[in-house]
Amino acid sequence: MAAVVRAAALQGFDELVGELGADPIELRRRRGVSIDADPEDMIALDPLAQLLEDAATRLDCPDFGLRLAARQDSRSLGVVALIVQNAATLAQAVTDGSRYLLAHSSAYEVVVDEISSLDPAWATVRFAVRVHESTPQRQLVDACVGYMHRLAFITTQGRSRPRALSLPHTPVAGAEVYRRFFSAPVRFEQPYAGLHADRASLHAQLGPADPMIRQLAIDHISAGLDPARAARHSDLVRNALVRSLGIGRGTKTEIAALLHQHPRALQRRLDREDTSFEQIRTLSALVENQATGAL
Asked: Which residues neighbour 143 within 8 Å (Cβ) at sequence distance 6 or greater?
């Protein structure tokens, strides 16, 4: 089975390529990467990896993968980000991410190793990607590890910083470029890609989290992986209104942001279910008013 990834993994690609002076549509067409795919659509990973390499070469931008990662936010990971960002600890966030990462890509693996190969006092969050052996991975690995670093920084509100990074390849950009991006030393030509951090930081409490949103996201992913339990997107929106923002009080933009989606993408999915955000919110408000009146 060919490796796939959500199209949202290319969040920011078109804008970055355009700013650097090339035509992103031309680059996409060359590799057969969809121009107008929905962010939730699964696309082939090998052509995407080739696309990143093409962009780096065409634009003479060896740190293209890192630049792409710097532009991406939690929407790139979608509903999985809701689980990660509402975990109790960074270690749980990684464990949850590993368990449900299949909803984002069939080829990505993330795992916590309690003993770092660089220092016995550190732990490692390891990353691996499975693509065809002939497919170049440097830009893809840079982009993924860079995004993993960025998401960890966002999730911990800047409290967790790596002590070092390891990458399996030689530097495609200058070593100092990597050091500036990660704010830590980077070791190249290592057995695996990973973020190395103080072990205690992985088990420190992350702070306020919403267990209801976390469970909502887990239920949604579990249903998506089991066709017999397939959940409607309208249920996800309705539950988000009820459980997080209060029935009838969330705007489409707020709920879309909560679910790590663009408002237009959210509406497209609701269109497929013959409903709209406005209809769901109006009905929810009627239910709330009726319940309030009965008290």
From this structure: 52, 65, 66, 68, 69
Query: At a CB cut-off of 8 Å and minimum separation 6, what does 140 contact?
Result: 45, 48, 49, 52, 65, 129, 131
- Per residue in 34-65, pLDDT (tens digit) is 988 888 899 999 999 999 999 999 999 999 99
SS3 call for 199: helix
Tokens 């988000």 sit at which residue? 240
Residue type, 160: S
Q: Which two tokens stand for residue 216?
A: 């909502």
Spatial separation of the C-alpha atoms in residues 25 and 73, rounded to whole Å = 22
CA torsion sign, 22 to 143 to 154 to 105? positive
Task: Check if the beta carbon of residue 128 is closer than 8 Å to that of residue 239.
Answer: no
Cα 152 to chain centroid distance, Å, stands at 11
Q: Backbone phi, then psi, for 23, in 5-degree steps?
A: -100, 110
3-state secondary structure of 87: coil
Superfamily of domain 4-203: H-NOX domain (3.90.1520.10)
Contact 138, 62 (CB under 8 A): no
Q: Residue 19 is encoded by which pair of tokens? A: 């700013």
For 285, phi then psi, to 5°, come to -65, -40
Helix axes 45-58, 64-71, angle to 10 degrees: 110
Cα 73 from Cα 60, distance rounded (Å): 25
Alpha-carbon distance of 13 to 66, in angstroms, equals 12
pLDDT one-digit tens code per residue, 181-237: 999 999 999 999 999 999 988 888 887 788 888 888 888 787 766 544 345 677 677
